Amino acid sequence: MINDLLNEAAAAGVEVRTHVFGSSRLKGLYIDNVITLNSKALTSLSETVCILAEELGHHYTGYGNILNLRDIRSRKQEKRARNWGYERLVTLFGFVQAFESGARNRFEIAEFLGVTETYIDESIKHYQEKYGLYTTIENYIIYFEPLRIGKLFES
């Protein structure tokens, strides 16, 4: 997954760098077609993938300086970038594929998709905001709270 995101960034003209930031709270930053990942703060490959997807989301969905998150416009842009990342890494069909592979809980789904459990939880909240309690894809139904995936029977 990391290679897919790195290739996508390169194709979009976005350089990806690593750097040690002074703050471990800031895990990634996107400025002027450059994504900088805080190598000190990122503790796993799956966490790195999640942060890279969000920062790439800033490239596709944002504009201007949004470092002041007290500004509602900045918060909206941050949310758009995160939502882009959720839909890029944790697709509805990804839930189905995880289910079909035998994944039955958040940990197993996160492991199957190569993201963190926290990212799974946040993506579920995003999809619940977007679709409500459940949605269908092909012949599957996905309930978001509690997370359940089932195959629909044809009549």
UniProtKB/TrEMBL annotation:
UniProt superkingdom: Bacteria
Ranges where the IrrE N-terminal-like domain occurs: 11-121
Alphabetical list of InterPro entries matching this protein: IrrE_HExxH (IPR010359)
Protein name: ImmA/IrrE family metallo-endopeptidase
Protein species of origin: Paenibacillus chibensis
